[in-house]
Prior knowledge:
The chain is flat. It has helices spanning about 15-30, 35, 40-55, 60-80. By secondary structure, the protein is mostly helical. About 70% of the residues lie in helices and about 0% in strands. The N and C termini lie far apart (about 50 Å).
Amino acid sequence: KTMPPKKKAQAGASKKTEQKKKAQIIEDRTFGLKNKNKSKKVQQYVQSVKSNVLNSGDRKQRQLEEQRKKQKAEAKARKKAME
C-alpha cells in the first residue's frame, strides 16, 4: 500500500508570524524616534507608520477575511433567531 500524499503547507504565513513581521517593520522604521523626541510631529509620524504597516498587505485577502467575518456574524444571528 502507498501512503496518501502529504497536504501542502499553507500558501501564506500564519497570522502570528505575520504580526511579528509587521511589529519588526514598525520597530525598524521608528527606531529611536519614540523616546528621543516627544514632539507632536514625531508622534504623528510613528502613528502613520504603524497604521500603514498594519493596513498593508494583499487587498483581496483582507476583503475575503471581512466577508468571512460578516458571514459568521450572519450565521450567528440566524441561529439566535431560530432559537
